[in-house]
Structure formats: structure tokens, C-alpha cells
Amino acid sequence: MARSQSPSSLEKAFYLVWFVVRGRTRRIGRDHASVALAHTPRLFLRSENLSASFSSTLDAFLVNLPIPRNGDGLHLQVRALGTQQQTKAKGAAKSPAASSADHLKRRTRSAMELDRDLYRRYASPADGGHVPVMLGEVLDVFRPPHHLRSFVDCTLGAGGHSAAVQAHSEMQLYVGLDIDPMAHGMARLRIEALLDGAPGLKAYTQVRNFKYITSVLTNVDENLLNHGVDGILMDLGMSSMQVNNSERGFSVLSDGPLDMRMDPQGSLKAEDILNSWPQNDIGRILRDYGEESNWHYLSKMIVDARVNGGLHSTAELADLVRKASARSGGRHGWIKTATRVFQALRIAVNDELRTLEDALYACFDCLSCGGRLAVISFHSLEDRIVKRTFLNLVDRVVDVGIDQRHHEIKKEVGDKKGHILTKRPITPTQDEERLNRKCRSAKLRIIQKL
Known about the structure:
Helix content: 40-55%
Number of domains: 3
Strand order of the largest sheet: 4-3-2-5-6-11-9
Structural class: alpha/beta
CATH architecture of the largest domain: 3-Layer(aba) Sandwich
Distance between the termini: 86 Å
CATH class of the largest domain: Alpha Beta
Shape: globular
Radius of gyration: 29 Å
């Protein structure tokens, strides 16, 4: 039976749905797509019964739809075209000011101009030219008229931030902490060299975890916390000397022992976790601390490796991740998967997230009225904790007694204790990202005590 020259609307709709469903259930090759696209326009455009709006939409679809490449699904192109049309409609409805506001909501990039001379001056030659991240933005946090008579650097690292902040005209007391003895030793030499030009400045450095900041400051001066300190900085990123030292076990690309301890005196190593912890606990670490989607299979492979003696080097762990990623396709390649695995193990070994939360509360309590706490984080887990803790510090809930009638602890929110100066985190400038690719994920948040 010959096909009607003017197919019904129902028939046309059937053909459209059929092509989309075919694209979902079967990958269409170039030949199939060519035939379909050659006949479909005539089939639809011959009709005179379609409404104007439906006809125009269909015309736009058929004209703009490219011939699919071999293996491409037609449904993907339909979805992409629909997204483009929705984006155009939203863009036309919004004013330029609204579009700009949406961009700011997604990311607040620093508006400061990169001072290259400043970065060269405070880069650490002993650390392979390690550059302090967002140095200009950190200096701006504590710049006059903000008073900075006392300052604490909770993460000395290579000492780049500290060396720059010490130049503040009002600086009288400096305290530097680092849990890593190697980083502390290098930074201490650098800071002592700077003290020759500042005879009125008292400086103290200690190998301590920043969660013990209260006891450290009490040991420096028992009356110091009566007033508090004017500025505290926490740079949560790893220094280049830690990553580049293969003996520390932090690097994915170099072979070394599975250590990953920030404090060499710590009892737990990454090797202990991989070779003795239950599979469920290893999977939880990879899922929660590494945000790794393939955590279940990776944890199974790690446990299965114990049959052959277990994992004892970073190269063995990286090779295991590479094989697992080849099986599942990975996410952006095996190196990024391995980076997430190494991050998860490092966080577990050093109990980084719980330590960070405890330290944030302790640091805020050590601030003077008007004092500022600046925190630079480098992954979403850290930034989430900083954001949540800052919000809790602003409206701190305290116990005020027991309600005898309901046998419950009564809580109330007192006066605001602080003010968050960064509604959204500040990220590096594009110039800094080009200069130092390691800073791309950095986020700066600032809170001021009232």
C-alpha cells in the first residue's frame, strides 16, 4: 500500500519519537543517520496541519541537527539542542546585570592585580621556588588600618606568607607552628634571617599541631590570651618539598614508602591502613575522604592484594589504581583517581578533617576583638568544614541550664560572636593560576571576631 503524501500529525509524532528511542537503545552509525536525516525533513515539512509554533520548533531542530558521528546517539544531540534552546531563552529573559550576578554566585575571583615582584621576593629558593598561594590577598586581609601587633601562622610550610606578613609596620609578636619538623626547620631559618632587620619583633616557632594553639600561646605569654592575637593564618595546602620528597609517600608519580604522616612521630601509616584495615573501612575512607566513585572495587582490590604480600610502596598502590581504572574507564584518567586515593589515605592517616574543625574553634577563641582568621583550603571537604564552622561561630549556641519541666538542656543563641568577611570564598586571579597551576583549587575564607 502506497504511503500517503500527507502523513497525519500522529504519524509524524511517531517518527520523531521512534528516532529518539532508537538513539537511546541503539548507537546509530553514520549510514543510518544519513538516511534518517535525508527523509525526515520532507516527512515533517510536507504537512500543512502543524501549528506554527510546533512547525517552527521542528524546523529549527532539523536544520541545526548535525549528522551524528559514528557511534553517537541521536538522543544525545536532541538533548544538547534542547539545552541550547533553554539556555538561549534564559539568557534572553535575564538582564546583563542578572547574568553578572549569577557569575558572582558561582565564583568570586580575586579582583587584585598580581604583583609578580612580590611573588618572586617571597618564593622559597630552598623549596624549589615554592610560591605562597594568594599572597597578595592574604596581605590585604591584615593590611592597615587593620591592627596587627600579634600574628600566628598555623602552617609555616616554606615560610612565604610569614616572611611577607612580618613586614607589617605594627608587628610586635610573631608565632609560627608546623607539625612537620622538616618544614619547621626550613621556615625557622628563613624567619630568623628576617629578624635581623626587625629588632623590636619577638618571634617564636614550634613543632606543634595547630589544634593546640591555645596551649602554645599560653606558653609564649601567659597573659597573651587576655587580649588575644590580632591575626591568624591557616594555609591547608601541602608544600612542594613535602610532595617532591618521595620518602614521605605523598606523591603519586614517584616511588617511595607508604608513609603519608605529617608528623613523623605519628603511629599510623598509610601502609597500616592498606594492609590491615577491613575492606568496609577502606571503602569508607575512599568514598568519604577521596570522594571516589569507584571506591567499592578499589577497596576490594586493595584487600585482595594482601594474598600476594600486600602493598608497601606508592608505586605498587599507583599501579593497582591504574589497573582498576582501566577496568572501569576511570574518571579523567587513572592519575586523578590515584590522586583521590592518596588524598583519602593522607586525610585518614593524619585525621585532618577532625583536627581542622577543632583548630578552627580554638583559633577563633584566641582572637582579639577585631582580630581576623584567614583560611586557605584546597579541596571541597576542607572548604565545607571551614564554611560550616564559620557559620557556627557567628551564631554560637550555648547551654544556659536545664529545663526541669521538660528535662531538657536549654540552649539559646547569644549575641553574634563574629562577622564573615567573605560571603563566598575568594579564589586566585587568572594570572596567578597561569603562574602557579597548583593554586587553581585554592579558596580563601575570612572571619572577624566582634
